[in-house]
Amino acid sequence: MDRHDTTGPRTDDPGFPALTAPRCGGLGELDDAVSGCRACPRLVAWREQVAADRRAAFSGWEYWGRPVPGFGPADASLAVVGLAPAAHGGNRTGRMFTGDDSGDLLFAALHAVGLASQPTSTHPGDGLVLHGVRVTAPVHCAPPQNRPTTIERDTCRPWLATELSLLTGLRAIVVLGGFGWQALLPVLEATGRRLPRPRPAFGHGAHVVLPGDGDRSELHLFGSYHPSRRNVSTRLMTFGMLVDVLRDAAGVSGR
Fold first, then answer.
1. Residue 230 burial (C-beta neighbours within 10 Å; 0-12, 13-18, 19+)
2. H helices within the chain, ranges in order?
3. Which residues have C-beta within 8 Å of that of residue 92, sequence separation ≥ 6?
4. What burial class does residue 173 get, using C-beta atoms within 10 Å of its C-beta: 0-12 exposed, 13-18 middle, 19+ buried?
5. Which strands sit side by side in the sheet containing 133-136, from one edge to the other?
6. Any bridge partners for residue 79, and if so which?
7. Which residue ranges traverse the bilayer (predicted)?
8. Rounded to an integer, what distance in angstroms lies between the CA atom of residue 82 and that of residue 184?
9. DSSP character for 210?
């Protein structure tokens, strides 16, 4: 592939995820590396264009305009995995699921089950603290139309695989949406987890238990519809539905 191709990943980039992610020894180092990634030219061009053009409602903001790392403590026993940052949400604020409608519902639900110090997440420095949960995504850049390509998803995969491996006390994962579910299963295999055959299907309320191995405990995998504006407006997803899934996951994770 031509190194100037604007659609495919830059495998010659020194920060390429497959080369960089496995070398990260802690979440702080990983988050810094994620924030500097420029592996996917289409996503780089889009996130930077959005940051330059801005939405009128946020004209006074200086957009983050970079890949958005995960958010939450290193001792998290529960992870929440979404899709990707929103163009005027995480891409604006620099915090996963922060500044958009999906995040508003998610953090309110996390607060309702005791996993967040407050029900809102508006910007870094707003005082929000997560308790035992880390929020992340399989794709760390805002994609056009909220649709990463399969190549972009797979290029970004090592970041999530390393992130989950660094959460040594991880007991449960809540996956928001079918895209996240399909993206996560290969990540779990990459971290050495044994998946059932056939692979478990996504559905709201799906619950799969993956066996432990060595010094790792079993891992509970929960499916939930994504708290997108469309899903909420059509009542496919409600606040109560999300709270129920998070409460079940928090229970098995020991929170």
1. exposed
2. 17-20, 27-35, 41-53, 90-93, 101-112, 150-166, 178-190, 229-233, 239-253
3. 51, 58, 61, 63, 64, 99
4. buried
5. 133-136, 78-81, 172-176, 219-224, 207-210
6. 134, 173
7. none
8. 10
9. E
Q: Which two tokens stand for residue 13?
A: 């980039």
Q: Which residues contact 83 (CB under 8 A, 6 or more apart)?
A: 137, 138, 139, 146, 148, 176, 177, 179, 180, 226
Of the CA atoms within 13 Å of residue 230, those in its CB half-sphere come to 4
In Å, how far are 38, 46, 60, 62 from 53, measured between CA atoms? 20, 10, 12, 11
Q: Which residues of the chain have pLDDT under 50?
A: 1-6
Q: What whole-number distance in Å separates Cα of residue 189 and Cα of residue 191?
A: 5
The candidate with the shortest Cα–Cα distance to 221, out of 237, 244, 201, is 201
- Which 8-state DSSP code applies to residue 7? S
Check if the beta carbon of residue 176 is closer than 8 Å to that of residue 170. no
pLDDT score of 215: 84
Residue 200, token pair as written in the block: 């478990």
Beta bridge partners of 208: 221
Residue by residue, DSSP assigns 15-66 as T-HHHHGGG--SHHHHHHHHHT----HHHHHHHHHHHHH--GGGTT-----S
What pTM was computed for the model?
Answer: 0.93
Please choose, from the candidates 252, 74, 243, the residue with its C-alpha nearest in 3D space to the C-alpha of residue 167: 74
Q: Identify residue 208 by its one-letter amino acid code.
A: V
What digits encode the pLDDT tens for the residues 214-225? 888 999 999 999
